[in-house]
């Protein structure tokens, strides 16, 4: 099926297929949905297109510092980062990206508090031991087998970060692509290491914790999600 990427055609096809299959649940999952948070008209359009259905928004939120470290690691992997972590935060990242309570408020405004299911992204506490089984538990489909790959997202091992930065800073995009892939593979052979311990001083951690203290408190009060 070839789509012209217009929102109307995309949703016409998705919802049309849903009706043809006579299914009783439809899961729309994409990281791109988060882009709607900066596009109020797009979020309103989504609500209107789904107005004939009982919609629930399932969101996983992560400890903000862990979230930023993970985001940095993934951007490092694809060559989008040319600065050490703390410098990158200061120069190129808006920390409000990890004010999850404010981001969720935009979804709540369109779909209602009663339609929000918010969970802590904490692998050690996932129902069934995986994000997939935990998600299925959230939407009351425990035990359903989706046959999804168990491949996890990959990032640069903290021990290899400085090497990765040297590659990004000194090589063109074509040359560095394969080397970055090799660094990811090498990282899998190294002992697990804490990104927070590698990238942050105690002073850095304390400063970031103070930045997120208020939004984390509001998140706990609103959605009963609390970070360690």
Description:
- There is one protein chain.
- The protein has 228 residues and is mainly α.
- It has one domain.
- Helices cover 52% and strands 4% of the residues.
- The chain has helices at residues 7-21, 40-49, 64-77, 85-92, 100-111, 131-138, 161-170, 173-187, 195-199, 202-223, and strands spanning 57-61, 116-120.
- It has a two-stranded parallel sheet with strand order 1-2.
- Helix 2 packs across helix 5 (100-111).
- The chain is globular, with a radius of gyration of 20 Å.
Strand order of the largest sheet: 1-2
Structural class: mainly alpha
Global outline: globular
**SSE string, helices as H and strands as E:** HHEHHHEHHHHH
Low-pLDDT stretches: none
> How many beta-strand runs?
2
Layout of secondary structure:
Layout: H1 7-21, H2 40-49, E1 57-61, H3 64-77, H4 85-92, H5 100-111, E2 116-120, H6 131-138, H7 161-170, H8 173-187, H9 195-199, H10 202-223
Helix pairs in contact: 2-5
């Amino acid at each position: 099926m070839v789509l012209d990427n217009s929102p109307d055609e995309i949703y016409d096809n998705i919802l049309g297929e849903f009706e043809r299959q006579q299914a009783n649940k439809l899961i729309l999952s994409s990281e791109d949905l988060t882009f709607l948070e900066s596009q109020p008209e797009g979020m309103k359009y989504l609500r209107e297109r789904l107005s004939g259905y009982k919609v629930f928004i399932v969101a996983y939120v992560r400890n903000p510092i862990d979230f930023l470290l993970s985001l940095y690691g993934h951007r490092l992997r694809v060559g989008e980062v040319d600065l050490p972590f703390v410098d990158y935060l200061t120069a190129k990242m808006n920390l409000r990206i990890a004010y999850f309570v404010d981001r969720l408020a935009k979804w709540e405004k369109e779909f209602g508090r009663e339609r929000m299911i918010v969970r802590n992204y904490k692998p050690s506490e996932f129902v069934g031991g995986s994000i997939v089984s935990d998600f299925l538990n959230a939407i009351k489909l425990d035990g359903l087998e989706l046959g999804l790959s168990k491949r996890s997202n990959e990032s640069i091992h903290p021990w290899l970060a400085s090497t990765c930065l040297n590659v990004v800073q000194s090589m063109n995009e074509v040359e560095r692509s394969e080397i970055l892939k090799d660094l990811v593979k090498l990282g899998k052979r190294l002992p697990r290491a804490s990104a927070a311990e590698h990238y942050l001083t105690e002073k850095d951690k304390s400063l970031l914790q103070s930045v997120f203290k208020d939004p984390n408190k509001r998140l706990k009060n609103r959605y009963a999600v609390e970070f360690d």
